[in-house]
Write a structure and sequence with these properties.
heterodimer, A: alpha+beta, Four Helix Bundle (Hemerythrin (Met), subunit A), Helix Hairpins, six-stranded mixed β-sheet, about 15% strand, extended, B: alpha/beta, Rossmann fold, about 45% helix
Amino acid sequence: MENRDQVQTILDESALCVVTMEPDDIQALGSILNNFDTVNQLVRDQMPKPWIALSSGLKGIAEQMALFEVEDPDKALEELGKGISLLQETRCITSEDSSDLKRLQSFLVECPYLNFCSDGADSWPKNLEQSTRVQPAPQDLSQDRELIESFIQESLEHLGTIEIHVLELEKDPDNLQLVDAIFRPFHTIKGVSGFLNLMEINKLAHQIETVLDDARSKKIPVSPNLVDIVLDGVDLVIRLIDDIRERINTGRCEPEILNLEPFLERLRAIAEVQEEDLSGEIETSVPECDGNDVGEILVKTGVVQAEDLQMALEKQASGESAGKRIGEILISEKKAKAKDVAQALRKQKSARQPPAAAGGDGTGGFIKVDTLKLDNMVDMVGELVINEAVIKQRLAMVAGKDRDLAGDLAQLSRITSEIQRLSMSMRMIPMKSTFQKMIRLVRDLSNKAGKKVKLQMMGEDTEIDRNMVDMIYDPLVHMVRNSADHGIEKPEDRLAAGKPETGTIILNAFHKGGNMIIEVTDDGLGLDKKALVAKAIEKGVIQSGDSMNDQDIFGLIFHPGFSTAKKVTDVSGRGVGMDVVKGVLDKLRGKVEVMSRMGEGTTILLKLPLTLAVIDGIIVKAGEQSYVVPTVSVLESIRPNKDDCHTVANKGEMIKIRGNLYPLVRLHDLFDFAPNTRNPWDAIVVIAESEGKQKCILVDEILGKQEVVIKSLSAMLKNVVGLAGGAILANGRVGMILDVSGIFSLAETQGGAGQAP
Amino acid sequence: MDPNLKVLVVDDFATMRRIVKNILKDIGFTNIAEAEDGAVALKHLQTGPVDLIICDWNMPNMSGLDLLKAVRADDKLKAIPFVMVTAEAQKTRVVEAVQAGVSNYIVKPFTADAVKEKLKKVLG
């Protein structure tokens, strides 16, 4: 009887626990509950019924104590202790043991807490309301103004997402995750509104939540009717929130009287309605109508008699039910069922909006703005920020003595940086729509190739500069194509390799360290390093792969005309693709990294700046000019030793850094100006990288690091190779932004510096 | 109660976090950190010591109950007092949390006094 020994140990432990604990010690009650669960499992069929009844009964007592349902917790704890000792004493009981059985039975009858647990389940919410819940005292809204304002804002955001989710749910009614995503914000709104004593919202959210909970637990199906009602619920909550906002702003105390009853009636009705057969969609049998009047639709579909409608219309006109919708009147008069009204409303809606306009039309608090205006604004804000920096620098001396001025300046910079942040955020849109375009692509590709591929998306809500979205689309297509076409194996190969039949491609977007990162990961073949090197040698891209590290080898795929796929399919493998990715990334001042493991898959990571309008640059001085080198292309900057500067035949000047030779680029030769220093060991070299090549750019000194707003050059200067644009620096002067790849090719053609080692 | 204890408030609704924070400040706590869901909270817990967790139930990514289970399953974290904030009017769910080892729970909506009382019990 190993089980009995275990039972004994557990019971002893519980008994000890009961003796030493306070009646409201939740954690102790938790372990007692767990103990009872274990005991009940151990003895399941081995003990006579009364013993098991007592054991489960005692668990019930512990449960009630944990829920603070018992009136006298000390007494309950005492009874719990008594019960446990009885269990201990009778643990060797057999069904023939009449005296022990009698003791158990009499305890079961006498213990005041045991009969109470049989009907406990239903009494919980009521109990909770009466004893545990403490309603906050009614209060003037202005007291919690700040909290309420943030509640309003956050709720509106939530309601926005609810709306989107509801619309998705309409298309995909079986997706219970969506129901959950709708349920949760309503639940939160309910919770917080209860706190802030906004009882109307609380009540409404609670009712909607209840219906959603039913849908979540599949008690009622997700029907178009449910979708309608939730959407209307959202509208109502928004109206209530608007009212509260107005009350805060105007100081008005009494709330707008909004009769929620008709809506609540519909909510209540939905539970019943759902049980009826919904398959008999009446829409097909409805004669076409102009669709502008719910009443008319109802009469035409035969739901309501014409007389009833007339009566309701009169009521509406006479003011008896003024402000109510005709549907609501009909429901409250019991002339029509909520379901039918909802259906009529839907019909009316679809008649009013042509289907083309129905999709994607931002409603409510959105306005559409020409992106050009936004761009101009961001531009001007950039000017503002720079101007602010200029003024600050100019006044730095004075501000050191004048505290008021220093304060004002600080305030000004706070405001400008906030404006900058705001104006940037206006141009940001979520990655979602771009990601979603890939769904179709993956589906088509995998069907065509006879593969099974699943697309997962993460971080779709990550925002990206509007101007970047379109540019990133092509690279993304190439990458996803590559993954689906070359990466993911055929199902039989996958099974043979011990992988799940269905391959996975994961799209992930997130912000990291001031960059936007987009990752495309597949669990396919991975890159074959040997094949890559062999191919590169064959194509003459490299001479040998001996000294190459992984990153260099993977980097080969970005070479134009490079493809390791043995056969060319009509979607990829013709050697165009990854070099396009690289090209776009360079243009966007981004980086691309490849991580891959043979047989396990590949991850390609795109690192993009958050916005195109601003560039993080290192300000360098060469001659009398300041230049901006984009920080992404700078690896490091050093002052070399004299011994490390060499001149190599046919390759020009080279600098040796940690054993590697880098070609030296003299800006003053390229742009033809007089430098202050000619010797690299008296000046500074900035080691920059572009398209996998590294070179040293000779400058006089480094002035600092700054975010600058890019100004495009005028048409006359547009074709100057080596310059990406201009910027106004903190000292108010203009600096040229260097285009590193342009500089490199310029250096190569001028013969000053040759190929990278 | 030691006002220097580090409290981690976990809730996906910023307003709710503020409400809880305000109450905690009223009680005298000064060292308060926030997390917007269980996953973030868990990350936070792994980076630095926390003396008390006050956590909402319903959250995306990782629910309060899952966080509780993760905390109790972690030898380094399992001793941290864990208070669940719940609006669940469902008996079984609260019992679930109790059995998972919650230190105490608070039912929404609550008052500052109610929180204070519970925290006193939890922190001893």
